[in-house]
Amino acid sequence: MINITLPDGSVHQYEAGVTPLDIAKSISEGLARNVLSAKVNDKVTELNRPIGDDATVQLLTWNDEDGKHTFWHTSAHLLATALQELYPGIKFGIGPAIENGFYYDIDFGEHQISSDDFPKIEKKMQELVSAKTPICRREVSKAEAMAEFGGRGEVYKTELIEALEDGTISFYESGSFTDLCRGPHLVDFSPIKAVKLISLAGAYWRGDEHRPQLTRIYAISFPKKKELDEYLAMLEEAKKRDHRKIGREMGLFMFNDMVGKGLPIWLPKGTDLRLRLQDFLSKIQKRYGYKQVITPHIGGKQLYVTSGHWDHYGADSFRPITTPEEGEEYLLKPMNCPHHCMIYKNEPVSYKELPLRIAEFGTVYRYEQSGELHGLTRVRSFTQDDAHIFCRPDQVKEEFIKVMEIIEIIFKALSFENFEAQISLRDPNNTTKYVGTDENWAKAEQAIVEACQEKGLKARVEYGEAAFYGPKLDFMVKDAIGRRWQLGTIQVDYNLPERFGLEYIGSDGQKHRPVMIHRAPFGSMERFCAVLIEHTGGKFPLWLTPEQFIVLPVSEKYLDQAQSMLRRLEELGLRGTIDQRSEKIGRKIRDAELAKIPFMLILGEKEIEAGTVSVRRQGAGDLGSMTPEAFAQTIEGEIAEVMK
RNA sequence: GCCGAUGUGACUCAGUUGGUAGAGUAGCUGAUUUGUAAUCAGCCUGUCGGGGGUUCGAGUCCCUUCAUCGGCUCCA
Kind of pairing, strands A621-626 and A613-617? Predict the structure, then answer.
């Protein structure tokens, strides 16, 4: 007999060789029906793998991330099995579970495939599910594995096997399909009741653009048909929050082919919103001792040769601008740092002046690959809420904390709660590719980690993700359909101060090299606004929204009074417009509701006599009538609540 | 840049096996003067993304190019 410890701490005795499924059955039939895989001593395994010794066991269902993972991983095998039967001779890459569903990378060789083939593939998958095709694990030696896959010409699989250690290799068989796989899997396909192929995409083998491009099929599956329907409905809902759609509908921004792809144009309302965000940040920055500057949109080529950017990115960027003067060349600025370095160099700097914080809403131009452009989140011209902090090495941590505070204030004011933070550090096994001394790196990395600890910020640490010039801390937020975008960033830079020969005079009278910190709490105004639109669905916070209210006169007879009401409210510090059309009030309300204007102020005979307006809240309905002063107070009160 | 898809009036979309473009919304004009989510009538709107080809005839088929969408790669 062996002792099995369950998550609640209870210990049960079973025969040696008991399987997780047996354990589930002994607990309840319902659990046995829903269990997908099990965590045995913290390792996820399949339900039919015998347990030989005392162990802690956690039974995993759809509600556990690991259970879901098993489900989707098996679904990927289901997809592969179906494809193997439909398209003999295709070669398989990899097929993992992902955040939402799974994919399989396949070299279709001669076969042509398009999304028109999806129904056929889905049907084949359903057949395999109905047949309760079992999935069997088999451990093989490296030689056997190579022989089996090599014999079939599975070049991708053999490459994977190459890299594996003998004795750790396992196969999973389902129907006619055998896959190299660590597992674990469901014991058969039958729990996969609903499956949907989502999209087709090209994906380079091992993510390397110099290697063959495989066809990736994205799909998702669920234990219940209803869950699939709900998921698809959720995706539809998310599409309604797409910033590209809302941006057009609300008149926030536009694109135009003649202006050029990836070059956004901010329309009046979008500009209003953006400037309000910029003002908000500017005020905070002033409090934190930043000096605001303005620099040109172009810079001499030599500036970027000195900074190193020309060597690094020159070939893949906008071409230099030439002039009638022989040899004169300028670049559209891809970043603001070199200009700011020149500001630093303009006068000798004493240690007493540090940290020096130079801020600019700086518009930069980057020649992003055309396939990568995406609404406002990835563009070729964008404005960074940039600043560069020049400080002594011992000030890095304190400055980091101050920047984190600014980001905290902003995210709080906009209710960005579900962000992720990532600390990117050096690859400890390969320190040669980085510039700067070991001592400084160690100091800066430690400063970042400690700053996060002190601020109580939970950040994921990634080794090898640092830029060659320094470690960084990034803030990521998801968009409507779950894509992650990097917004705020704080980066330490040892490179530019070196290249530009920046120095300050220390208390010892000697010259020293300052550390430079790049930081952008929003990241860029474009991307930030895009994510903000998707988070709010266009219902912006009152302090930010371009139009806080719209006056709706009941008939054209009251237009004059509407005008004076608007003036009165503007005097009280609010902003809004009047619906002057000769439409019925119901129509005006409908249009204002759809335009997501927070407050509708209805003005008719009753209100004019009483000197009030009837207030209607977008999405919430009639709030009754009040004086303009009382209305202004309501709005101010709400704003103060958020901003405190 | 690569893989796949899409492109019809300002917007959303229809347009059978190729037969010479249509609806709703928006806009304009007029009537209506309206009380909490769509007043009525009339009018206008298109090189069917661009270019080339096949055909008696192309929005429909082919080639090419541009843009957009979903991914990959990249992202100072």
Answer: antiparallel
